[in-house]
């Protein structure tokens, strides 16, 4: 890299650099916490993922959307707008609550009051 003593893979070792930050993708969990990828990524990139982990994250989103019933045929297409995802998530929460309420109502047996 120009104007620095460090190569791209060691640029994070430079305490004065301000352009890069480490990839935040969690490789695995350990007793001390998650272990991040740590490859250098431009600070302006959002989400802060290297190119390999960005593609993995996109695949996870597509898989989750398919599981929710929103079929996206190509990974090149953009995901549905945020309000579509939120609406689907809220619908699932409401459905779970409704099912739980129905299950609780079946368990409740009304008491009959007998007058003497």
TrEMBL record:
TM ranges:
none
Q: Which GO terms describe its cellular component?
A: NSL complex; nucleus
Q: One MF term in GO for this entry?
A: DNA binding
InterPro entries per UniProt: NSL2, Znf_KANL2-like
> Which Pfam families does the record match to this protein?
zf-C3HC3H_KANSL2 (PF13891)
The UniProt record lists the KANL2-like probable zinc-finger domain at 1-53
- Per the record, the domain of life is Eukaryota
The answer to keyword Nucleus applying to this record is yes
Where does this polypeptide localize? Nucleus
Could you list this entry's UniProt keywords, alphabetically sorted: DNA-binding, Nucleus
**Major site of localization recorded for this protein:** nucleus
Entry annotated with the keyword Nucleus: yes
- This chain's protein is named DNA-binding domain, KAT8 regulatory NSL complex subunit 2
Q: Which organism is it from?
A: Artemisia annua
């Amino acid at each position: 890299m120009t104007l620095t003593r460090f190569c791209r893979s060691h640029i994070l070792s430079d305490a004065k650099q301000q352009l890069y930050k480490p990839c935040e993708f969690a490789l695995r969990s350990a007793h001390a916490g998650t272990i991040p990828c740590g490859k250098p990524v431009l600070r302006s990139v959002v989400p802060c993922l290297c190119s390999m982990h960005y593609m993995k994250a996109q695949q996870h989103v597509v898989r989750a959307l398919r599981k929710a019933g929103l079929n996206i045929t190509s990974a090149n297409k953009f995901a549905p707008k945020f309000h579509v995802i939120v609406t689907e998530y809220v619908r699932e929460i409401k459905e779970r609550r409704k099912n739980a309420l129905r299950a609780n109502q079946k368990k409740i047996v009304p008491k009959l009051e007998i007058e003497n």
